[in-house]
Amino acid sequence: MDFQIYGVSNLFIFTVILLFSIATATLQENPTATFAKPTTSAPQINSNSILVALLDSHYTELSELVEKALLLQTLEEAVSKHNITIFAPKNEALERDLDPEFKRFLLEPGNLRSLQNLLLFHMIPTRIVSNQWPARVHATLYPGDENVNVVEKNGEKMVSSAMIIKQDDIIKPDGVIHGIERVLIPKSVQQDFNTRRSLRSISAVLPEGAPEVDPRTHRLKKPAPVPAGTPPVLPVYDALAPGPSLAPAPAPGPGGPHHHFDGESQVKDFIQTLLHYGGYNELADILVNLTSLATEMGKLVSEGYVLTVLAPNDEAMAKLTTDQLSEPGAPEQIMYYHIIPEYQTEESMYNAVRRFGKVKYDTLRLPHKVVAEEADGSVKFGAGEEGAYLFDPDIYTDGRISVQGVDGVLFPIEEIKVAPVAAPVAKVVAKPRRGKLMEVVCGTLGSFAFASCH
Question: Which stretch is the leader sequence (predicted)?
Answer without folding.
Answer: 1-28
